[in-house]
Amino acid sequence: MSYIVMEVFKTSIYISVPIILIHLLKNKILSKYTHKLNYMICILITLRMLFVSSIEIYLPVEVLNKKSNKLNSVAYISENSTNLEIFLSLIFYAWILGTIFILMSNIYKQIMFYKKMKNIKYKIEDEYIIDALEKEKQALNIKRNINIFKVNGLSSPALIGFIKHKIIIPNKDYNQEEIKWILRHELIHFKRKDNLLKLLLMIASAIHWFNPLVKILNKYFKEQCELSCDEEVVDKFSIDEVKNYAFVLVNSLRYKNTLKSTFCSSQFYNDEIKLIKSRVEKILDSNKYKNGTSISIFIAMIAVISMFSISTITNQNISYASESVVSNDFQSIEEEFVNHIMSRLTEEEKRQVKIVRDEDNYPIISVGESKYFSISKSFEKESK
Predict the structure, then answer these.
(1) Which branch of life, at top level (predicted)?
(2) Average pLDDT, the chain
C-alpha cells in the first residue's frame, strides 16, 4: 500500500511541472502554436497521469570486485517506522476513497443524463439532415453508423457515447448551412475519439484528485479540445465559410441549456461565454500558427522516459522475497545478515535483541528500543 501511495504522489509531482508551465506560458508562448499541438500536450500529460507505476529496467554492469558484498543489503530504519507505515496506510485509504467517490459521482451523473434524455429525445426524420450527415461522413471517411436525435431542453449539439455514438441536437429548426457546420464539428470529435480521451482525463483526475493543479489541466484540456476541433473544421475553407461557422457558434448562445451534459460528451457550444468569445476570435483570426512538430516529439519523449526507472545489477540473476518459494541462497543471506549484526553488538545489547519478521517475511532485528536493522527486499546471488 505504501508503494502505491508513493508512486501516485511521485507521478503527481511529475505532472505538476508541465501543468504549471502551461499556466504560465499559455498566453505568451503556447498561443503562437496551433491548438492541435496544445491539445496533444494535454493528452500526453493525461496519459502520464494514468501511468503511476514506473517500468523497471535493469542494466547489468561489470563488478571489479568479484566477491559478493551481501552486507550491502543491510538497511537502517528508524524506531518510528511502524508509525510511518500506519500513517501511509491511512493516506492510502483516504486516497482510494476519494478516487472511488469521484468516479462514482461521475458515473451517477452520466446515468442520470441518459435517464433524463431517454424521454425527451426524438429520432430525426428530416431528409436534409440525414443527407447532410451522410455527406459529412463521406467527406471525413467515416463508415460507422451514427444516429442523430433531437432533444428538448438542449441548447447545443453534442456527441455522446463511447462505443455506440450518437449526435444530439436541440429540438429547433436549422437551415442546411447550420446543419453542415454542426455535423462536421461533431464528426471530427468522433474521428479524433475525443469522448474516450475525456473519459481518460476523468479517470486521471480521479486518481490525482488531491492535486489542485489538475483543475487547471481539466479546464485547459476542454478549451483546447474545442478550439482544435474548430481549427480542423475551418481548415482550407474560404473566409466567408469561416464567418458562417462563427455565426452558427454565436447563434447558439441565444438558447438556454436546461439539460446539463456530462464528461463524456463533446459539445458544439460551451456554457462559458469567455470560451465562446475566444473560439470566435480564433476562428476569424488570419494569423498563421506554428505546428510545433519538434516540440510535440520532444514532450512525448520526456513523457515516455519519465515512465522508466533504471537500476543496475551485478549479474543477471536477481530474486525477490515476494516469490512463493524462498531459495537456499536467500536463507544463507539471512543467516549472514543476522550473524553480521550480532557481531557488532555488545554483550549487553545481545541480551536485548529481538528478531521478528515484517509482513513480507523479512527479518527485523531490534535492540532495546533505539536500534532497528532490516534486510532489503532484494538480494543478489553470487556468480557460480
Answers:
(1) Bacteria
(2) 76
What single-letter amino acid sits at 316?
Q
Q: How far is 54 from 14, CA to CA, in rounded Å? A: 12
Q: Which of 347, 319, 334, 346 is nearest to 373 (CA)?
A: 334
Per-residue b or e along 267-279, where b marks 16 or more CB atoms closer than 10 Å to that residue's CB? bbbbeeeebbebb
What are the tens digits of pLDDT across the range 289-322? 777 777 777 777 776 776 665 544 444 444 443 4
200 by Cβ neighbours in 10 Å (0-12 / 13-18 / 19+) ranks as: middle
Q: How far is CA 35 from CA 100, 106, 160, 178, 214, in A?
A: 33, 27, 22, 23, 20
Q: Contact at 8 Å (CB) between 33 and 293?
A: no
Q: Per DSSP, what are the bridge partners of residue 33?
A: 290
- The residue among 177, 128, 173, 170 whose CA lies nearest residue 149 is 170
Amino acid identity of residue 131, one-letter, is D
Determine what percent of the chain falls in helix, strand and coil, rounding each to the nearest 5: 55, 15, 30
Cβ neighbours for 228, distance < 8 A, ≥ 6 positions apart? 34, 35, 36, 38, 39
pLDDT tens digits for range 157-204:
889 888 888 998 888 888 888 888 889 999 999 999 999 999 999 999
Task: Give 58's strand partners.
Answer: 311
Residue 174 to residues 157, 167, 178, 218, Cα–Cα distance (Å): 11, 15, 6, 32
Highest mean pLDDT among 76-80, 120-124, 243-247, 269-273: 120-124
Question: What is the C-alpha separation between 13 and 149, in angstroms, rounded?
Answer: 43
